[in-house]
Amino acid sequence: MFYIGIDIGTTSTKAILYDENGKIKSKSSVLYPIYSPRANVREQDPEEIFNAVLSTLKEVNSVAKNSGEKVEFISFSSMMHSLICVDKDANPLTNCIIWADSRSSEYAEQFKGNGIGIEIYKRTGTPCHSMSPLYKIMWLRDNESEIFKNTFKFISIKEYVIYKLFGEYLVDYSIASATGLFNIYDLKWDDEALNLCGIEESKLSIPYPTTYIIEGMLDKYREVLKFDEDIKVVLGASDGCLANLGSNGIDFGTAVVSIGTSGAVRTVSNRPIIDDKGRTFSYILTDNMYVSGGAINNGGITYRWFRDTFCSEEVEIASKMNIEAYDLINKMVENVKPGSEGLIFLPFLTGERAPYWNSNLRGSYIGISDMHKREHFARSTIEGICFAINDVFRVLKETNEDIKCVYVNGGFTKSKCWVQTLTDCMDTKIIISDNYESPTLGALMLGLLAIGRVKTLKELDFMLEDGEVFFPTQNKEKYKELFQIYQNAVSSMTNVLSDLAHFQNKL
């Protein structure tokens, strides 16, 4: 028997075919762009993403068919905080507005300032930030009144895909808990949040547990994908929650750091962990498991920006050598002493989520002197990302002091120098999780729980593999000092960076 875990991500959709032991039998991935006609706009085409779902599912299912194996279920992982307005015929009235869109930042700041946003956060687990569909809907109400008036449903990209496949508007508790509109204690849409953005509950999908099983895929798609009539679809959860599950991060006292396009620090508990200052999120994984932590906007996307902006020579050489430019940049980084000779990078190229939840922060290199060369800027870039992760980790430890071990995953783990830098910054033992496709593996594990193959997720530990272990070195003292300067810089420069953001948004 085979199973499919599929992850609808920010930059691509991946479908992976697994066997009963969690071993990968086939994988398929389709990339798609982010459209950004203005500095504060980040959108994607829902149909491009839906076609990516169809393409990847069809490809891996064909491998199962050729192997003579049946696919018992598909289990979904998906990015959080997306919003699509659709009319009564399910036609999109907007593109998919993704988490990085910051048009609603003034609304988030207003409700953070008046205290109402913090009270909503305490019930919904979603911090006051422009990523939240709550504030996106407010912005649409006041700035796109015709679209708002003609919207039949406000849905996420996963809900769009599920509706196309099944003709029903369903949302899992995990995606719902990342909207700012869902009470994570009552498991219902929050009345006050709905009133504030001016919509009724009927404008949203019906929420279900993450283990809910959908059957009856519409024939036109089932036949295209060549699935059997009894194929099951597990509604699944959000990519962040499932990445934790698929990275060995479901034991209390452990945390998981992911650095991909963005980044995050997450830990699991049997209850929501709510920060009085609203600095962390708390989302639902299962009925008795919550994932709390914070995400940063600027992970690998920042390193890519550095490559594209400053490393054209390395890109050209890497192309001729048939290697990645990052391999050459990483070697350049290794030749610079930890601390980058006092050069600090604030990595807020697209604003920031945790722990500041401020869309108006902007990036900056601080402490530049004539001793600094391009290689210092390269190292300070990865150190700045590590400081941003550590900033979230320190807040998380305030509410959960028992975190003793951190698992890490994502593309940054290819660089031992980067992982060691993060280890020293966090001053905590770090274990590389070899489960690179963690959201899809988490989706598989959740699916096996949903169909009753196991009674608890812990029974699936055999699917998880640990890699190299890193311990803090004497450089941790240097990074403690620099991290304090980093935090002071953010605090003292917030108003200046905000002024620059407003200037940029007017252009």
TrEMBL record:
CDD domains: ASKHA_NBD_FGGY_GntK
GO biological process: carbohydrate metabolic process
GO molecular function (one): kinase activity
Record domain Carbohydrate kinase FGGY N-terminal: where: 3-246
Signal peptide start and end residues: none
Stretches assigned to the Carbohydrate kinase FGGY C-terminal domain: 255-450
Keywords from the named record: Kinase, Transferase
Pfam families, per database record: FGGY_C, FGGY_N
InterPro entries from the UniProt entry: ATPase_NBD, Carb_kinase_FGGY, Carb_kinase_FGGY_CS, FGGY_C, FGGY_Carb_Kinase, FGGY_N
PANTHER family noted in UniProt: GLUCONOKINASE, SUGAR KINASE
Family: Belongs to the FGGY kinase family.
Protein name, as recorded: Gluconate kinase
The species this protein was found in: Soehngenia longivitae
Species classification: Bacteria, Bacillati, Bacillota, Tissierellia, Tissierellales
